[in-house]
Amino acid sequence: MEIAILSGKRSKDPNTRVGSCIVNEKNRIVGIGYNGLPNGLNDDEFPWGNTGDYLNTKYPFVCHAELNAILNSTSISLENCKIYTALFPCNECSKVIIQSGIREVIYLSDKHHDDDIFIASRMLLDRAGVNYRKLETTIDKMELSYNEENV
Ligand SMILES: Nc1nc(=O)n([C@H]2C[C@H](O)[C@@H](COP(=O)(O)O)O2)cc1CO
Ligand SMILES: [Zn+2]
């Protein structure tokens, strides 16, 4: 999950930076992603707002962290993999998760739990037999340092 969160730090979304990290059955990382525009699109030429006219928001344009982690995957097959993701996946990402063969979703936040999108998401995951659980941890924060004395 720390790798997922760290990846999310690269997102240009000013409001919500989500990261995801996929591991295989041996817990080896096989894909990482964060929410951002599709490849080659300029972050400065698209809106990043989240209110107002749909076309003036980020929503029609941004790729979610989970989608990017799957598409960036180094593995041909993601059968039986797990995805660690900072936010519970939306219904669109849940469809992609199911199709990819991922069998478990471990999330940090489920802050939109009662929105239709996430109700649909759970319906999809439940019916497909994809397990999901909130990460249980006592860790409050992670610290990184560029000070070479800390290596
Ligand atoms: N699971 C998710 N993975 C994601 O990558 N996202 C992204 C899409 C947007 O860029 C941002 C949500 O923006 P906002 O509605 O909190 O301002 O997080 C959102 C969710 C929640 O469905
Ligand atoms: Zn999504």
Protein model, in words:
The chain is an alpha/beta fold and 151 residues long. The protein has helices at 2-8, 65-71, 91-100, 116-128, and strands spanning 19-23, 29-34, 82-87, 104-109, 131-134. The protein binds 2'-deoxy-5-(hydroxymethyl)cytidine 5'-(dihydrogen phosphate) and zinc ion. Residues 13, 15-16, 18, 35, 50, 58, 62, 64-66, 87-90, 93 line the site of 2'-deoxy-5-(hydroxymethyl)cytidine 5'-(dihydrogen phosphate).
Bound molecules: 2'-deoxy-5-(hydroxymethyl)cytidine 5'-(dihydrogen phosphate), zinc ion
What's the helix count?
4
Structural class: alpha/beta
Poorly predicted residue ranges: none
Radius of gyration: 16 Å
Distance between the termini: 21 Å
Overall mean confidence score, pLDDT: 97
Q: Would you report the number of β strands? A: 5
Features:
globular, APOBEC/CMP_deaminase_Zn-bd, alpha/beta, binds 2'-deoxy-5-(hydroxymethyl)cytidine 5'-(dihydrogen phosphate), metal-binding, hydrolase, binds zinc ion, zinc ion binding
